[in-house]
Amino acid sequence: MSRKRIGVLTSGGDCPGLNAVLRGIYCASEQLGWEVLGFRDGYEGMLADGGDTMVLNRENTAGIMQEGGTILGTTNRGHFTSKIAGGDKASISEEVITKASKTCRDLDLSAIIAIGGDGSMSTALQLYRVGFPMIGVPKTIDNDLEATAMTFGFDSAVACVTDALDRLHTTAASHKRAIVVQVMGRHAGWIALWGGIAGGADVILIPEIPFKLEKIAEAVQRRDQAGYKSTLIVVAEGARTHHGQQFRKQSTSGEWRLGGVGEMLAQEIEARTGKETRVCVLGHLQRGGDPTTLDRILGMSFGVKAVQLAREEKFGTMVSYQNYEVLDVPIADAVHRLKKVPPTSQLVETARAVGVSFGD
Ligand code: F6P
What we know:
Blueprint: E1 5-10, H1 18-32, E2 35-39, E3 53-55, H2 58-61, H3 94-106, E4 112-116, H4 118-129, E5 134-138, H5 154-175, E6 178-183, H6 190-198, E7 203-205, H7 213-225, E8 231-236, E9 248-252, E10 255-258, H8 261-273, E11 277-281, H9 293-311, E12 317-322, E13 325-330, H10 346-353
Parallel strand pairs: 1-2, 1-4, 4-5, 5-12, 6-8, 6-11, 7-8
Antiparallel strand pairs: 2-3, 9-10, 12-13
Helix pairs in contact: 1-9, 5-6, 7-8
Residues 13, 76, 140-142, 184-186, 237, 258, 287 line the site of 6-O-phosphono-beta-D-fructofuranose.
């Protein structure tokens, strides 16, 4: 009998911990005597004739757990895009499904593990519903995927924000300035909230709590009057004014690129308070670099669990982290409804209790 073979792909924006998942998948499969084929550049790798693939082996998975990015490559554009914005979806064309299906049949894959966020899980669900043996592994630095308490990549992004704030405190204090730090978070403010609290931010602005410019200016002035001469403001890229205005750059393949809220805030704070204000956009720094210890552990554990699910032929399920355990849920439970920060959650209240303003 021929050796069992499974496929794996990394899809959507990259994040630290993807390689740890790949290593977990390879090592657990090796124990079972299975072969692992990685598709290059996410689902797109299914469209080349015969598939654009690489065999995962000891050599190419050795020492990758501690490296950011993904050895398979990824994309958040292309033929399989199934997300327009939070909650909206688009269908993959028949032609693309037929081509991908032929590739997977020709490669004799008994399971396909898709590692990705909301859009990639939505694609996995569509493929599962037309017969692909899909298993999902949740990934996003934004931590906004439903049905899992945490995704890997989030902790590394928060560590990046915390480190940036530690550095910005000293320069802001020396110059008696306000500094606005714009972080990622399209629909959910988890990175801004966790990073802001850990890094001692004075104002935290998240998409779930609309802000008023006058409240932010008041917070800056209050600190000055209390004798603190500098103020750090952390803002999620998707934060909105109380009029509902969001700051967008352009639309590519349906999804808006966000940007500009930090610059707008810096100008408004300076105009309203007279305080010299600077802006620092952390951008893709939050997605790059080595995964933290937690993200390595989560990544490796998620990879091993995905192989167990493949062994049990539990297709249509997604690995899920709940109460310190790695379990599984139907992929359908995770998509098309994002996990947002509850505005009255304990962590928001904790921040308010130590004097953090949310601009409301
Ligand atoms: O969804 C993850 C994310 O990091 C968002 O926070 C951000 O808006 C987006 O990806 C950026 O994507 P791109 O790599 O296309 O700039």
